Amino acid sequence: MASQNLQSVPAELSPEELEREQAGQAYFDRIISEDSRIEPRDWMPEAYRKTLLRQISQHAHSEIIGMQPEANWITRAPSLKRKAILMAKVQDEAGHGLYLYSAAETLGQSRDKMMEDLIAGKARYSSIFNYPAVSWADMGAIGWLVDGAAICNQVPLCRASYGPYGRAMVRICKEESFHQRQGFEILLELSNGTPAQKQMAQDAVNRWYAPALMMFGPPDDDSPNSKQSMAWNIKRFSNDELRSRFVGMMVEQVKVLGLTLPDQDIRFNEETKKWEHGPLDWNEFKDVLAGKGPCNAQRLERRREAHDDGAWVREAAAEYARKQAEKEFAA
Amino acid sequence: MSTPANAPTNEPHETPWPLWEVFVRSSRGLSHVHAGSLHAPDAAMALRNARDLYTRRNEGVSIWVVPADAISSSDPDSKGSFFESPQGKDYRHATYYTKSEGVKHL
Ligand SMILES: [Fe+2]
Ligand SMILES: [Fe+2]
Ligand SMILES: [Fe+2]
Fold first, then answer.
1. How many angstroms is it from B105 CA to the middle of ligand 1?
2. ipTM of the modeled complex
3. In chain A, where does DSSP find H-type helix?
4. If you measure from the C-alpha of residue A127 to the centroid of ligand 3, how many angstroms do you get, rounded to a whole number?
């Protein structure tokens, strides 16, 4: 994802430019080694900027697309209370997308360009949102497993070396815990309901478990960029490390739900002191990322529609602002 | 800002709304603190959007929005010289004065 604002470093640097680059790099290295924060106007290596821009914009897109599987159930929520809760959650996800677009913009990419890239299918977002939400119990499983995995991933990002990203994550993490708890409650209620309701809850957990585990990204030996991200203090823990922690938490929580995880191989490895899980289908992961998931086309189409349907609102707002300014000028 | 050739726009490219920085006072007696930024066509709408975006859980009792390009900031490259003056002036801190240690209410 190249930005028109990113200046590639010219092949030949004048002595002054070279000196500035070296001083900038030295300053950057010191900030990173002190585990301090880089701010938008600081000098930063091009690769650092690009990595962040890719990660933050993909994260923003995930929040925006992530509204769809749940928004789909707002009109069919089983009670007014559940409906209000679900609307609040979906509204939060929109907010998360906006916080993150703001953070990405500080890296020199315009928001419109990011939106365009998403709509044009040129930008990536989390593979998880390309799975369908087929029953009400999925609202529970998404909150518990998907938001749960997101929290696990995002809490360490609050300490990311890029200031605006870390600050956006702090705000987001505060809001996410409600998301996970409301999902847990939905599952708990279904699990304590009729046998059919309990089966519905189990079925949702069965379907969302593996995709949620894959949210942490490919295994460490197949995640080439992780090392650099960790050296830059963007990422604090490896994909497998975070996944293992998540499994450890879920294994306890699922007991309270009275349900099971669809994985016979979960065990605590006494030697490594880490939780282990069964094999995951990484080919499926790659396919979904590449646009071949069950809902990719539908999600993008819906996003495009929403953008087009919103055109008159944007036009009206701009016109209103113009008229107000005119009035003020005349007064 | 140029539009990529294959951008999915059949309408003329919409002019981007200006960027606003948002400051929120979390409760009476405290300063407004920077919360984030957003885009809006004018100040009135920036305030409404800021309310929806940054105070969904009673996080504030007052909001400021400021056009981002109206903010001047110190140049990060001059970090050294710009903030040099306080250096070596320990005598501006109470901790510099040690002889009064043990004296009550001082
Ligand atoms: Fe979110
Ligand atoms: Fe998220
Ligand atoms: Fe969430």
1. 51
2. 0.86
3. 15-33, 46-65, 67-74, 80-105, 111-119, 137-141, 148-154, 163-191, 195-214, 226-231, 239-257, 282-287, 296-309, 311-330
4. 15
> Each residue's pLDDT tens digit in chain B (106 positions)?
344 444 444 444 567 899 999 999 999 999 999 999 999 999 999 999 999 999 999 999 999 999 999 999 887 655 667 888 888 889 999 889 999 888 988 8
Residues of B with CB under 8 A from a CB of A: 1-4, 6-9, 11, 13-17, 19, 36-42, 44-45, 53, 56-57, 73, 75-77
* Helix or strand run (H / E) with residue B80: helix B79-82
> Does an H or E element contain B48, and which?
helix B43-54
Domains of chain B: 16-70 (3.10.20.520)
Amino acid at A69: P
pLDDT, tens digit, 9 for 90 and up, residues A102-124? 999 999 999 999 999 999 999 99
Alpha carbons B75 and B81: distance in angstroms, whole number: 10
Structure letter (DSSP) for residue B34: E
